[in-house]
Amino acid sequence: xxxxxxxxxxxNPYYQQYIQKSGDVTLTEGLKNNGDLTIAFLESxxxxxxxxxxxxxxxxxxxxxxxxxxTERVFTYRALCIARGDKTLxxxxxxxxxxxxxxxxxxxxFSLMNEYKAVRLASxxxxxxxxxxxxxxxxxASNSNLSPRAVAFIVIGHENHHCEIINERxx
Length: 171
Hints:
The chain is mainly alpha-helical. The protein has helices spanning 16-20, 27-43, 61-83, 95-100, 109-129, 132-136, 148-170, and strands spanning 89-90, 139-141, 144-146. It is globular.
């Protein structure tokens, strides 16, 4: 299953920017390969850059890593619930509040990367367990339709987006 299989009514148009950045990958292979690339990229960042901010009020690289982890958890929880037929209307989440309260800069890179790896592995296993029918189910998050398969491509593209920003503005 690729992003080309997605229908426009499976996600909020805002997420098209991330879906486009997911590349030409299949759903689970994309999560696996993207995770490997992200791990290699993040682990190559010099220690002295991890708490750097390129402007006042911008997140550090550690905070961005925590944001990637938090976003993947929030979105994959939504995907799980939708795949299982839960009709809950999921509210939005305030990424800035999560970042402000994460205390990511007090954590070691080793700790952050272990959490990232665990979350990604759990996501891969979960998506592999979904049938095609589960992946196509539609739920509602942030007042918009959302399918589990759209979530996978949003997670991949969102991660690519932030890695591009790190590369362009932090390194």
